UniProtKB/TrEMBL annotation, chain A:
InterPro entries: Gfo/Idh/MocA-like_OxRdtase_N, Gfo/Idh/MocA_oxidoreduct, GFO_IDH_MocA-like_dom, NAD(P)-bd_dom_sf. Residues 8-25 have a biased composition (Basic and acidic residues). Residues 147-265 form the GFO/IDH/MocA-like oxidoreductase domain. PANTHER family: CONSERVED EXPRESSED OXIDOREDUCTASE (EUROFUNG) (PTHR43708), OXIDOREDUCTASE (PTHR43708:SF8). Keywords: Oxidoreductase. Residues 26-139 form the Gfo/Idh/MocA-like oxidoreductase N-terminal domain. It holds the Pfam family GFO_IDH_MocA. One of its GO terms (molecular function) is nucleotide binding. Residues 1-25 are annotated as: Disordered. This is Myo-inositol 2-dehydrogenase/D-chiro-inositol 1-dehydrogenase. Its EC number is 1.1.1.18, 1.1.1.369.
Automatic annotation (TrEMBL), chain B:
This is Putative dehydrogenase. Residues 132-257 form the GFO/IDH/MocA-like oxidoreductase domain. GO terms for molecular function: nucleotide binding. Signal peptide: none annotated. Residues 41-124 form the Gfo/Idh/MocA-like oxidoreductase N-terminal domain. Pfam families: GFO_IDH_MocA (PF01408), GFO_IDH_MocA_C3 (PF22725).
Amino acid sequence: MAAQTEDSTEHSTEDSTGRPGRDRPLRIAMIGAGGIARAHLPAWLALGAQVNVYSLEGTEQLIADCGGGTACSSLEEAFADRDAVDVVTSTDAHREIVEAAAAAGLDVLCEKPICRTAADTAAVLDACERAGVQLYPGHVVRFFPAYATMHAAVADGAVGRVAVQRFSRTGSRPVRAWFHDPAISGGIVLDQIIHDIDFACWNAGDVATVFGRATRTGSRETGVDTAQLVLTHVDGTVSYVTGTWARPGTVFRTTFEIAGPDGLLRHDSTAHPAITVDTGAADASAGDGEGTGLLPAMPGESPFLTEIREIAAAFAGGPPPRVSAADGLRAVAVAEAGVRSIAEGRAVAVAEVMEGITAGRTA
Amino acid sequence: MKIALWSFAHTHALSYWHVLSQRADVELVVTDPDHGRRGNEPGGEALAAQLGVTYLPDYAATLDWGAEAVVICSENSDHRRLTELAAAGGAHVLCEKPIATSVEDAEAMITACAEAGVSLMVAYPVRFSPDFVQLKQTVDAGALGQVLAITGTNNGQIPMDARAWFVDPELAGGGSLTDHTVHVADLIDCLFDGVPARSVYASTNKILHGDRVSVETGGMVSVEYANDVIATVDCSWSKPDSYPTWGGLTLQLVASGGIADLDAFASRVDGHSETRRNGLWLAYGTNADELMINEFLDAVSTGRRPQPDGEAGLRSLRVVQAGYASVRSGQPVALD
């Protein structure tokens, strides 16, 4: 909030004084109005934030559906008199918007991946560091209750040193076409599997080497896409992460198993449902623009609200959240190594991807 | 049928003894002449007496007795020697998995049995499990469309407390990569009717039980098959010593027309025992060992070739051996 302090003194309206998020509502600029915006905007509104929304399309509908937010017609208008920016556009637009936010002195929550490449991500980290603004990637899986519970246990030594861990993520393929254009989203590794890459690193630290294979059938828009990565961590842990964009209507399912010398932790989002209702007819609807890949059935509050509450608290001067910009860079670098491994049929050292990149390594 | 069980070294010998002893048409003898090198572990004449099965002093004696077929449950590194001995004696062979500890040994076993005109079958029981058979029928019927990717797990307790040789690199041929990759590899082999692997990458470590053993205890094996299917196998000995059961095997198929999950040991009653201070895991599934032995005995009596044969055992062994080569090089290894 370094730049924000000056900002506050420049505004004379009573509304602008006081500490954002404490004495007055946080003022957020949400850029983008697609699938994930429908998870973020209700969370901001639930926290009492005032949200400007700017998007190339869908703004009015999003605001109407979520019952809050103010439509803006330009990035500048959206940024005016704001505390922070929430970037929920397609991945290819992230860098430009985050750099503009940094230039305006605004803190940033940026959906994962921060960018498609480690080089672009490092540049974004640099820009935010120079501007003295906070940047957090939306690795929301860290806020899913089952995953947060598992990580806390792992960190507490529940299984001992992590030896082998597996993560899987399966949902119907996203409906919006940009997800399937590697030039925009980075493809399934950078868009979907990166969730579990980040988590594998959260549990077991940096990755030395990545080996991946991927396959698909049918067209990018209608087929099935799947990839498998083996991560060898610096300290020797072996992780397996796999993701699938499956047929429309496929149940969203995530699983993990974490094994160490002192035990096992495992979870399957389709096991142990707290409540089951059988209405006798399958609902095979394809869901929204994210396919069914946004949220599994789970009790309690939306993990997006948990995530945004914690990041909003940091924007308001509170403690840093559980995920950092450096975590976001690490996940992108590992994912990029995976994409390179899949393309070239060889194991790729993460150091190779990070060669020449210095930003963000100490963050 | 006169059948000889050779060696109690592998713990599966007891299961095979049980199945064979239930068959009215089988005359069974046992020999375990190398028991002495396994120290105080159960085996030899004493175990045979305990089981109430006829014991003969050595392998040759069982051939002299007239064994038509032998079931080899020795340490892995002895599979070649014993198979060649059986073949020379004109006996059909059911050999515990993995078929051998080197590709060269496996090829010699296949040749020896072919030249002697006897069958060589490798003991992969899971492909006989009705649940797996149903999965294969589902795939063969096209209900899943084209299979694209497979994730397999064969995780168990480290077997060293039952038999120490499992963690001896010479006798076993390696650690968990040897012990637990081949079951899943054989299921994939069966699913796609003998498809060979094209490329193998593996990463292993010794974090589990690393203070007690010199072999790898955990790892992942990534395979690309000649039909373009990709697969990853978790071969880790990652079930804790106090786990309520030995371990398990799962297979997930991702296909163009859907996703299928197999839990080969799902059939069980769960519970908890206050006395044992542990969970109860009461398996009630079909005895796949029995179905496998039936296949072997039926092939022996009718003269047809049993499956999985020596070539199938060699294909799954190749995946393991390429895995070790990959661990050494840090890169994927291409197979012919």
